[in-house]
Specification:
- This protein is mainly beta.
- It has no helices and eleven strands.
- Strands 2, 4, 5, 6, 9, 10 and 11 form a seven-stranded mixed sheet that branches. It has a four-stranded antiparallel sheet with strand order 1-3-8-7, with no helix packed on it.
- The radius of gyration is 13 Å and the shape is globular.
- It starts with a strand and ends with a strand.
- The mean pLDDT is 97.
């Protein structure tokens, strides 16, 4: 049972990245997925979440209108499309499955010129 994030990297302000969260070992379609992030010296914060059926999404105010969460049930993968990135988006991004108490190892996103 695990989730593995990928897609992080270094990008300039205004750029885009797409993060992926690949799930395995459990029934993907049963669970709500969330993306969190943690930057240096700050607490981990919720960025976005998506319901098990993919219909309902939620975003933090800081990313609303710039980030989009989605899921592909056939690929058992959740995505976070991040556009118009800002330096304050720099953080380690984590995938979480709350009902399984499951976290990924994180992927680092650095927004810098």
């Amino acid at each position: 049972v695990q989730v593995v994030e990928s897609g992080g990297g270094v990008v300039q302000p205004g750029g885009s990245l797409r993060l992926s969260c690949a799930a395995s070992g459990f029934t993907f379609t049963r669970y709500l997925f969330s993306w969190y992030r943690q930057s240096s010296g700050k607490e981990r914060e919720l960025v976005a979440q998506i319901s098990s059926d993919g219909i309902t999404t939620h975003y933090s105010d800081s990313v609303k209108g710039r980030f989009t969460i989605s899921r592909n049930n056939a690929k058992e993968t959740v995505y976070l499309q991040m556009n118009s990135l800002k330096p304050e988006d720099t953080a380690v991004y984590y995938c979480r499955v709350y009902d399984l108490a499951l976290w990924g190892q994180g992927t680092l996103v650095t927004v810098s010129s």
